[in-house]
Amino acid sequence: MEIKDLHNFTITQLKEELPSSRCLWMGDDICLVDVRYKDGIHMFRHPCRLEAHLAMFCLKGNIRLTVNLNEFQMSDNTLFLSTPGNIIKVNEILGTEEDMHFAGIIMSKEFVHSLRVDINKMFNEGVTMIGNPCLNLSEEESSVVGSYMELMGKVMTLQSTYKVDSVSSIISSLFYLLAGVHSRNLKAMNAAVPASTSRGRQVFDQFIRLVSENYSKYRNVGFYADSLCLTPKYLSKLIKAATGRSAPEWIDAYVILEAKNLLKYSSSTIKEIVYQLNFPNQSVFYKFFKARTGMTPSEYRNS
Questions:
Q1: What residues does 67 pair with on adjacent strands?
Q2: What's the predicted TM-score (pTM) here?
Q3: Which site from 88, 90, 181, 275 is most exposed, i.e. has the minimal number of CB atoms within 10 Å?
Q4: Pairing outcome for strands 7-10 and 48-51
Q5: How far is 41 from 61, CA to CA, in rounded Å?
């Protein structure tokens, strides 16, 4: 089986890859893009891990893409949201490449952290966003999103002392609008988030951020409980109530996802993957992987 190596892109590297004529940058923190598929999005034919926040709006087109090995479809009036660390790959173009038209915003982690809104909280601490990165907008909502982007572009070209603050306010307002769309979509799909206390949701938000940063080194609940100044038992209780999944299940899910990505999208040997994911030896890794996927790492790589 041919293995397509994973391409890692920081926001600075994206600045070098994307066509300058189609991008409006504000430093290295935010970029407004208006591209045709053939102009820049084609890089996603190969698996790409983005270390940036991405909000990409499909003005025209129809594509199938995978996000962390899960497949989704984008078509007219679909907005795709991605957080740092996600691995994205375009699987299939449904139509003509020349007709594919996208507009979007790329933001550094530092810029998003500086916003005066809690994006994770707006999207239910990421519980539902993980499985639903595509938002379907109505014609009216699409028009409003387009107006936001047009206004943002005009502000970014001004010589203003408070330009960064102005753009930050526009993006914050846009995210509130999208959070409302997300909430409506959830109700339409009857995909309600499991009932939980606000305390549980707050803890899950902190927990999942820690997991996303440390899963390759620490797989025991005790580490995350200590980091959050909680007992392992109480942390597990809060996470289970907030998401319907236990804390160890969330940790294992991140480890398995990274293992799958390395097996599918890298030329690393299994021995090297064992080292990268901090397993004591190949035997432990094999047992861990097979217990959660029903396949050995070799079988998965060759599937």
A1: 70, 88
A2: 0.69
A3: 275
A4: parallel
A5: 12
- The model's pLDDT over 86-103, given as tens digits with 9 standing for 90+, comes to 888 888 888 777 778 888
Residue 60 and residue 58: Cα distance in Å, rounded? Answer: 5
pLDDT in tens, 172-188: 898 888 877 777 766 65
Q: Which domains are present in the chain?
A: 7-188 (2.60.120.280), 198-302 (1.10.10.60)
Output the CA–CA distances (angstroms, integers) from residue 54 to 15, 74, 142, 274, 300, in the order listed.
13, 14, 17, 30, 29
